[in-house]
Design goal:
Blueprint lengths: L1 E5 L2 E5 L5 H7 L17 E6 L2 E3 L8 H5 L2 E3 L3 E3 L3 E5 L11 E14 L2 E7 L13 E6 L2 E6 L10 E6 L5 H9 L5 E8 L11 E7 L3 H13 L7 E8 L19 E7 L9 E2 L2 H9 L7 E7 H13 L7 E6 L9
Parallel strand pairs: 1-7, 14-15, 14-18, 15-16, 16-17, 18-19
Antiparallel strand pairs: 1-2, 3-5, 3-7, 4-6, 8-9, 8-13, 9-12, 10-11, 10-13
Helix pairs in contact: 5-6
Length: 335
């Protein structure tokens, strides 16, 4: 047993468990997502002590490794540790549950994006924070999908699923799934949800189906009469115009306080779209917002890494940048 001090919060950890696991079992909630070293959400810096690498830290780049950063989900303590972390939660996450669920409806949003709505039995209500994700269990496999809605009175859960070539789950979702199919889900997971900050200025970056958890956050904010919407900007990027789909809002770009900007990276701009990567579009138009803005980024790991690097270079505080990278699972499916 070794003492782990993270941001001066102390707990005990075994050499047989990860720093993240030990923290969660002691009610110390380090921000995290994939729990397998593939994303970058649980990044910490070791100030003193030794750790053991359990599996590759694919979510770190060479510069981060040289600076002493580790991923707490794939490192165990070998001695007492002193660690710095940009994002340790100030509240517990909802309990993880295994629940049965039936497909309530299927709606094709584009040729490669499907919206699936699941219904749970009354005895299996799933509590979650908007922005978290669940695992769907079938065929002896597990795939992770962000919840694309705020909590509903009827407890239904909406997923926005991208087709992945040769993916076993994609084959099921797009070619075989039908209403009333029985599945199992497990969750919620992750720490990508709205935090308590000193600012009402919110910026969201999303690529592809990374818009799903952001949609859930916005729905929750719109439904919460006690929390002012504030100044909200959403930059949503896809390669082509045809990759965009309706989000289920009446017209989010016209809602008071919300500005939706659609960006295409492989086509020229027109009046309805901007051309370029979302982080570059934002910096070209709104870099003055950075000093007092909470920024949430979800989607490709490349977008998140580039955004984080550029925002920090412009002086945006690391503690106000929250991220959830969609990474490929072992079976080649996308989160």
């Amino acid at each position: 047993m070794h003492e782990i001090a993270i941001n001066n919060i102390k707990y005990e950890g075994l050499e047989t468990e990860t720093i993240l696991e030990a923290g969660l079992s002691n009610d110390v909630y380090i921000a995290h997502s994939c729990k397998s070293g593939r994303c970058n959400s649980c990044r910490c810096k070791v100030l003193s002590g030794e750790t053991k690498l359990i599996s590759p830290e694919l979510g770190l780049n060479d510069e981060e490794r040289e600076e002493g950063w580790i991923l707490s989900c794939v490192r165990s303590p070998l001695s007492s540790l002193k660690i710095s972390c940009d994002d340790v939660l100030d509240r517990a996450v909802p309990e993880v549950k295994l629940c049965p669920a039936r497909i309530d409806s299927l709606q094709l949003l584009t040729k490669d994006v499907l919206q699936v709505t699941l219904r749970l039995p009354p005895s299996s209500k799933l509590d979650f924070y908007p922005g978290q994700y669940i695992d769907v269990l079938a065929f002896g496999l597990s795939r992770s999908y962000s919840i694309a809605n705020a909590p509903r009175v009827d407890s239904k859960i909406t997923l926005i699923i991208k087709r992945v070539p040769d993916g076993r789950f994609s084959e099921y979702w797009f070619d075989q799934a039908k209403e009333n199919d029985l599945l199992r889900i497990k969750g919620p997971y992750g720490t990508f949800f709205l935090r308590e900050t000193q600012t009402n200025k919110l910026v969201f970056f999303a690529t592809g189906t990374g818009i799903a958890p952001i949609k859930a956050m916005l729905e929750a904010r719109l439904l919460d009469n006690d929390s002012p919407m504030g100044d909200v900007k959403v930059l949503w990027g896809n390669r082509y115009r045809d990759d965009f789909f309706e989000l289920g809002f009446s017209d989010m770009s016209d809602m008071s306080g919300i500005n939706l900007i659609k960006c295409v990276s492989r086509e020229d701009a027109d009046p309805a779209f901007k051309s370029g990567y979302i982080q570059d579009v934002f910096l070209a138009d709104d870099k003055q917002m950075l000093s007092d803005t909470a920024l949430y980024a979800c989607g490709s790991s490349e977008m998140i890494a580039a955004s984080e690097q550029k925002m920090r270079a412009m002086g945006h505080p690391a503690k106000q940048f929250f991220k959830d990278a969609f990474v490929a699972s072992g079976g080649g499916e996308e989160l």
